[in-house]
Structure formats: C-alpha cells, structure tokens
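User: I'm writing a tutorial on reading structure tokens. Could you give me a worked example: one chain, its sequence, then its tokens, then a sentence or two explaining what the tokens reveal?
Assistant: Sure. Here is the example chain.
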Amino acid sequence: MPITAAITAIEGYVPDYILTNHELASMVDTSDEWITERTGIKERRILKGVEQGASVMAIEAVNRLLKKRGISAEEIDMLIVATVTGDYVFPATANVVADKVGAINSWSYDINAACSGFIYALTTGAQFIQTGVHKKVVIVGVDKMSSIINYEDRTTCIIFGDGAGAVLLEPNTEGLGLIDFVCRADGSGRKNLYQKAGGSVKPPTHETIDMKEHYVLQEGQAVFKVAVKQMSDVSVEIMKRNNLTADNINWLVPHQANRRIIQAVQERMNLPDNKVMMNIHRYGNTTAGTIPLCLWDYRDKLKKGDNLVLSAFGGGFTWGSVYLKWAINN
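And here are its predicted structure tokens:
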C-alpha cells in the first residue's frame, strides 16, 4: 500500500488558570446564562505570567508528546506550529519551540490560518511523510488568544481561551492516517474577522494602541453564517469523495468556535450527538488549538481504524476538512 501520514501520538496542554463565565460577568455586561446560551462556553483557560508566550504551551505539549511516544527530540525531522499569536513577529514560534525542546535536526516554521491553522499545518506536514522525505513530523496548534483580546468587548472576550495540542506524524502502510483533505480560503472575508493593527499595513503607534486596534475584531453574525456554510460544505464534500456516510463516520472533530455552528455542521452530516467531539464548554475557542485539544480529550474513546472527519473555519477567511483513519491502538 502507498505511504500515508498517520498520527502516532497526541498530547495537549492548557494553563491552570480558569476564567469562568461568572468572573467575566464581573468584568463586562454579560452573564453565565447569556454566554452559555449563545456559545456553549462555561469557562476557558488563560496563560498568566510575565513573558509567557504561546511557545510556553507548545513546548509543554511537544515535550509530553515525545515522552508518550518514547522518542528523543533529535529524531524530529520537521516541526510546524499553527498560530496567530506567535511569540514574536519573527522569528517563527516553531523555531523557538524546536530550540527549547532540543529538536536540533529539524527545520521549522509557522502557519497562520487562524482557526483553520491546525488543519492547514496537518495537511502540509503530511505531504513530507507521504513523499518519503521525512519520517517524523510534529504538528502543533497553539494560541494565546488572551494576548489579543479586549476584555472590555463582550462580543469577543467571552469566546476565546488559551491552549495547545500537538500530534506526531509518521509513515503508515496499513491504509491508516490522513486519507483526503479539502482546504479553501477567501481573503475578501478578512474585514469580518481580523486584527486591524500590528502588521506592515498599520504598524504599532500610540494612536493604534489608544484606539485598541491590536485586539481581535469580529462581525459575529457575518462570520457565523459563512462558517456554518463553509464548514458544512467541505465536510459533506469529504464524505462524498470518500463514500462516507453517517453510519461509517465514527467521529466529527469540529473546530470549537460556537456550539451552534458545531450543531449546524453536525445536522448537515446527519450525525448523532455521540459522534461529535465537543469540549468548547471547558476551553472556549483556542483558535488553532481546538482540534488537537479535542483529539487529546477524546483519546481514550478513539479506536484504531476509526473514521474521523476534521472540520474548521477561521479568520481570513480560511476553512477546510480532513478525512483520516485513526492509527493509535489504545
């Protein structure tokens, strides 16, 4: 059989600090009931401390991953980090992570695709396995969203949290691993979900800081409508291309942006609740971290050979879906 890229280990990390809906209600005009009804979120994790960037969470997730798989960092050929909240404009956060974990034989870079980042990075890394170029590729989805959230804006501060998930990709000849993917993008949607200042178009100034333009800006209703359509469309497309039905899909692994979006995608795929991974109530939207954190949370329920459909939508706009067969025998 041809070589496929299979996930052979999964790990995650979330900070200790829990920001509950009740605490948020003391900061902005909101309530636990209002947040829960509209998003499904009950709490989210926040990375506290001085000079604690996204790499802190990614490093912890990767170190746990290596320990679980029983390999050394020197064996990693390539490390890709999906993030929109990198430690620096440059160098890449992946470079920092590779250095800190001791992956001295790897090359590394970041992918910026917002909430679709993990799917983009996973499909990219898989190509290096499938072509025989590399044997061990680490993919990390991580975001410290608290660093770009305005906690006076109740439309965004209730949604996002911090967290990281990491997977190891290795060659497989049993027909397991990544089977197919569909990735899309539409840059015309950028004004509905973006960070206005901080890039080369509008570099940081006193004015941009005073105007609070370094925080996430989101047109909620516009994003909701497009997210439901595009996540659903690519998920159904993946099903049709691979002759998948609701009966032979074991799990939908959706980006955890909003419970109502997840349920809309689930309905288009005709899947029951017990086939949908959901942990948004615990972590909120960790952007590139949501899908690997779902896999991590549900790892004990996954069986070798299970059919998984991953689906995400993010700012940019970016979106995509992946069909993979689970390769870990718990």
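What the tokens reveal: The longest helix spans residues 220-241. The mean pLDDT is 97.
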